[in-house]
Amino acid sequence: GGSGSGLDVDLAQRNQRDVASDPVRAELPESLPRPARLTANQLGFQPECDIQAKEAISALQRAKTKDCRQHIAHIACSIQAGRFYAIQLKSSCPSGNHTANVSLGCYRDEKDRRLLGGYYTSFKSSNSPNVCVELCLQSGYPYAGVQYGRECFCGFDPPPKAAKLPDSSCNIKCLGNAKEICGGFYAMNIYETGISKFTAQLAASTPPTGAKRVRIAFLLTINGRALRQVHRLLKALYAPEHVYYIHVDARQDYLYRKLLELEQKFPNIRLARKRFSTIWGGASLLTMLLQCMQDLLKSKWQWDFVINLSESDFPVKTLDKLVDFLSANRGRNFVKGHGRETQKFIQKQGLDRTFVECDTHMWRIGDRRLPAGIQVDGGSDWVALSRPFVAYVTHPKQEDELLQALLKLFRHTLLPAESFFHTVLRNTHHCHTYVDNNLHVTNWKRKQGCKCQYKHVVDWCGCSPNDFVPDDWPRLLATEQKSLFFARKFEPIINQAVLLQLEEWLYGPYTSEYLNLHGYWQSLYHHEDMHGAADDLTRSVGDSLMRLAGHQARVDPLELLELTHYLHRDQYKGFLVRYSARRATGQDVQLETRVRPVQHGKLARNARFSKRLRNFEVSTDFDQKEQVARNFAKILGPQSDLVISYTYQGSTDSGAASHSYNLTLLWIDPLGRLQDFNELHVEDSSTDVINHSRTLFSHPITPGVWTAKLIGRNSIYAQLRFLVAPMAYGNGEPLESSAEAEKRNGGLGIALPDDFELPVEWQQHLHTDDEQFLLREEAVANGKLTGQPLHNWIDVLVGKFFQLRESCVVDAGTELSLPLCSDSAWSSLAADPKSDVDALLK
Ligand code: UDX
Question: pTM (2 decimals)?
């Protein structure tokens, strides 16, 4: 989460990574200029007060809608008036303050040192001069028919038969016993240092024999389009006695529609009807979790624990083992703490700032003082909570001031789910149920994951964990001996091999006849999706490909149905265009064609540099964390923010002198004009280095064939021709007037400043003024095209930059000389049993 939350890594690693992530905070929009005054005119309303906080003013200037500005202003004024946050709260954790000095040991008979069983913990209470020792004793040794006795002693450590005090004076729950030490069970998560309200943090590994097995409510919070991975996850988690409640981000109608189909088949799978736009780090994420938990409590379903998971989680132990574990720990709450100095955590996490969520953004509006009298705690937002605790947090009583105040506090907190449950647990009568383990291993690689990549969503620099790839296998393997049951993150579009390895480790090898085990399909467009500006470009190119494919198959295309990415053994094989069409006979059919995007590259022969240049490509959506451009289909258009990326292969020749290159990348538009340039510095290295470079264009850019040229002082090293496709749609509608078309396709501006002096040696790479003049006329005319002429223009261009590879027909008995899609391994209609949830019904 926040740039500060160092979760799920061991301390040594964590410290190293923090160093790497520290500078990230410098990028906060701290230095926004403060105007003399915000006028009612600017805002569209008169705020209740003269807003002072610089950050609130900045937020008000940036927020798009009036509703949002009003909301921000209202909260900023309430805070300014001092009537928003509680100043002092009272913890209701009954234990008071203890100097936790916990040790774990076996309880042995004093005389013969015979093991009596169980463990003991000791701690010193601030309000008692004695060391208080808690014993978990088992009536009779060895451990059979476990029924733990419980005694509380004060005075000595280790405990002899001393003065016996009432339970309440120790206030520590006895929940398990210790294996590694006492030979029976094992313990974990012992607090060893620091001043904290002490709670025993031992978790048992095996349930007492005959104990009732718990039922789990899996709360899946889902975003994106990775339907098949969600199915695969459900397959791994499914059992009829558990329940599955799914929240899909309100903006993801594809996944919502598709997952809704599960309700018909499974009585224990349901989708939340009340949906939120759960932006990254947003307050809505907590609102949504609480709402879903409330729904779960209201349902007729029986469950003892809620576990939240996302589309990128996957189990690392079997469901049986998870149930065993939780059955042994009924009533406890599993959350992961930050494991560092609290004040540092608070600062890095932005807990001492107020945030307001609106217009799908988290606005930072100023500093705040956290209420005194409570212990603020946090870490990971992946949790396993017991039913009683869930009931407590979701149904706050009016008179429960503490919980009411915390709910309010966390409604205005960045990444609220990373601290809310922890803090409530620490400060209420549920404090003794806290276990510092969220059951997850998280693949943090802060150097890569903390690139301030959510700046457009939150006024803060956030971090995300990396996707697992086969190189991370040791980290997954290491979960075996620990009470860890899930890992994150997994994204099959980045790597599916590691999921296969994981499943085979958990459930045994797949058979060699297993169908399409190495295929992965992920939707990129669906005709039932809500159309609008966001998919105008994809439809423009998709329609064109449908026309080209239809022409090839001698059918009349009717409607573009779906576009689907297809990968095999983690290699991108292109995307699949599914469409309906009419045959000359009048018969309607559906077809699918595999298409590969192509960019035309040339490398200088003999240049040492060029020989080591790989994956030189232009795309958009470069993901710095996974080091890959997410626009796999290379569908680029007039509004695209183009990015060049390439791999510079590591040198295997250790004897050779190391070279570094200062190169220039020229971005040349279809008129042969320079639109932008990047200075690239490429260092020699023994390992592959992935670099990328962005452009600063004024949009819309000219559609047509562009060239990126990589030049040195005297020579050209590489060049790449790529397509910026013209648009056929605007705001979800086909472009009908030439004025509308011109707005999208008539971009002829130049991004470079007027006074920019073009270096002479670059001119040979550009067109002359005369050449430009002729091309400009053509571009102006093209920019106005609509209807059939527009389609013809697009089709000629698309035909050059997308290759039609193979086609299939969906329906049997059409006499078309094409294979059936269900028999074509690449087709989105090919069998995919690893993601087939229907198999669960058999
Ligand atoms: C990391 C941490 O693992 C997480 O604890 C913290 O909340 C954010 O940082 P990260 O990989 O960055 O997670 O977030 P991601 O898994 O993409 O999203 C978190 C949750 O929010 C998921 O359940 C996801 O489905 C949901 N989400 C995210 C949405 O619903 N909509 C979005 O736009 C983004």
Answer: 0.86
